[in-house]
Amino acid sequence: MTSDVFVNTKSNGSTWRDSAGLAVLPIRLVVGWTYFSAFWRRVALENKLDPDVSGYVGEKFNHFLPQALGIKPFIAFLVEHPDLLKWSMVVFTVVEGVTGLCLMAGILTRAMSVSVFLLALGILLGSGWLGTTCLDEWQIGILGISAGLTLFLAGGGRYSLDHVVVERNFGVAESCWFRWLASGPLDVRRRQVLGGAAAVLTIALCTNQYFHGGLYGPLRNKSVAPIIEVSNARISDRNLRFTVYRTEGVDVYGSFLVGVTVTESETGRAVVVLRAEQLSSLPAHSITNRYIAAVKPGAYGVIVPLGAKAELNIDGLDIRIDPWHHYNLSLADVSGAVWTQALQIDD
Questions:
Q1: CA dihedral angle for residue 174, residue 11, residue 9, residue 99, rounded to 10 degrees
Q2: Nearest Cα to 263, choosing from 325, 195, 205?
Q3: How many CB atoms lie within 10 A of CB 134?
Q4: pTM of the prediction?
Q5: Is 83 exposed, middle or buried (0-12, 13-18, 19+ CB in 10 A)?
Q6: Is residue 218 exposed (0-12), middle (13-18) or buried (19+ Cβ within 10 Å)?
Q7: Dist CA 275 CA 259 (whole Å)
């Protein structure tokens, strides 16, 4: 037994009326605008596709990297190759614009709903963990996925250009591919609809728990306080070098390193102390960035954006390292957070 998603009536054999399409008309228009407006903001209102301007969308993409689910290698590959990243952002933006415009007009509605589903899935997996006060990006992603499935089931309805093609009896309207890519009556089993709904709900619950918790256990928010991972820390009498990678915190501004200290474990003596004014005057060649989000000196220390990874190489030290002692590196953030890593001694 099958159940039509569409209430399908004909008048004089020339028109059809899609009640499901009419019911989701507000969703189609609003979802279409959300995607087209992303294109409009990046291209017409501001140029956010230029890597040399502030607000470059590629840097925002870099912010997704630390806690992305399932697509971390893909994001890492792009942010390590700036030219590929730039053209990927151009293609992504054009796809968003075409998807949104076609969806609002009701052109190839079902094909565009699949595009919405995939775009939203990418947003969910990449940035679903971001959100300083609420689950902002997760909500955008999961609602986009559910809207994509809903629009696929419903089609464009009466107020769509797909409907115009059907009403004017163009030959393509009778083809099977038109109904699957555009609009028109589909026979869909209830179990298929329920299966799709259950799949979307499962994605919602699993990603909610993975990114934010709360389904069981406490809530987590990785967008509040900065966390910097320190690795490859080495020291000699004349040189200190280490790698920083910021994995958590607010995405709209950086972590500010205002202190670097090297302490001798056996005596507790500080053998290197670099304060904010010294860090802010580090030469550009002392910082080697791996990704498009760049660690750089600022007015009050070293700025470490979310997702940035870089090696800091500080020369010109004049200290004596005892090879039989142990040393620890401490990085201090303006927030009061401190990250510590054991140092390896170079010959």
A1: 50
A2: 325
A3: 10
A4: 0.88
A5: exposed
A6: exposed
A7: 5
Q: How far apart are CA 160 and CA 333, in angstroms?
A: 54
Hey, what are 191's tokens? Answer: 């179990």
User: Residue 194 has which token pair?
Assistant: 């329920």
Could you tell me which residues come within 8 angstroms of residue 77 by beta carbon, excluding any fewer than 6 positions away? 84
Taking only the tens place, the pLDDT of each residue in 285-321 is: 999 999 999 999 999 999 999 999 999 999 988 888 9
Q: How far apart are CA 207 and CA 212, in angstroms?
A: 8
CATH 2.60.40.10 location in the chain:
227-345
**Token pair 């589903």 is at which residue?**
117
- Residues found in the chain: 347
Q: Tell me the CA end-to-end span of the chain in Å, nearest whole number.
A: 78
Residue recorded with tokens 């589909």: 186
260, 272 in Cβ contact below 8 A?
yes
187 forms bridges with which residues in the sheet?
4
Q: Which CATH superfamily is domain 227-345 in?
A: Immunoglobulins (2.60.40.10)
Question: Could you read off the pLDDT of 239-274 as tens digits, one per residue?
Answer: 999 999 999 999 988 889 999 999 999 999 999 999
Distance (Å, rounded) from C-alpha 127 to C-alpha 138? Answer: 7
DSSP strands (E only) in the chain? 3-4, 8-11, 15-18, 187-188, 227-235, 239-248, 255-264, 270-275, 287-289, 296-298, 301-304, 309-315, 327-333, 338-345
